[in-house]
Design a protein that fits this description.
- This protein has two helices and six strands.
- By secondary structure, it is an alpha+beta fold.
C-alpha cells in the first residue's frame, strides 16, 4: 500500500523476478492478486470485519499491455456508493453483491489491466455457517 485515504487506495507491485512470468513480464496472477487485494482491502477498511462478513465471489481480469515495469493499482470508494449499495441495502436484504473495479497501470501510466472483483457482503448475524 503506497497511499490510503478514506476513499482511495493505491497499491504497488514491484518489477522483480519473483513477480515475473516466463517472458520476464509481470505475471498475470500477480496482477490479479494486486487487483483483488486493492479492492478487498478498501472494502474491509471502510466496513470493518466486526459487523460485516466480506468474501470474494468472482474475479475477472482483462489484460491490455505487458507489464515490463512496476505496477500501481488504484481504487476509489465513494461514500454515497457505500451507503446506497451496501449499508442501506443490508437493512432490508440478507446480502449484497458489489463490484470493485481496480485499474492497474505501470509506473509510466500504461494501462496494464483492469480487475473486477465481485464481493458478497453480509451482516454476521445473517451468516448461517459457524466460524
Amino acid at each position: 500500500i503506497t497511499k490510503l485515504s478514506d476513499h482511495n487506495i493505491e497499491t504497488f507491485l514491484p518489477y522483480r523476478k519473483r513477480n515475473f512470468n516466463h517472458l520476464r513480464g509481470l505475471h498475470a496472477c500477480a496482477l490479479a492478486t494486486l487487483a483483488e487485494f486493492t479492492g478487498g482491502f478498501m472494502l474491509l477498511t471502510r466496513l470493518g470485519n466486526v459487523k460485516y462478513r466480506i468474501i470474494m465471489k468472482k474475479l475477472e481480469m482483462e489484460y491490455f499491455y505487458q507489464g515490463k515495469k512496476a505496477a500501481i493499482g488504484r481504487f476509489e470508494l465513494n461514500e454515497n456508493w457505500l451507503q446506497e449499495k451496501v449499508i442501506k441495502t443490508l437493512e432490508t436484504e440478507d446480502k449484497v453483491l458489489v463490484n470493485c473495479e481496480v485499474i492497474i497501470e505501470d509506473v509510466d501510466g500504461n494501462h496494464l489491466c483492469t480487475g473486477n472483483s465481485l464481493w458478497q457482503i453480509k451482516k454476521w448475524e445473517k451468516v448461517k455457517t459457524s466460524l
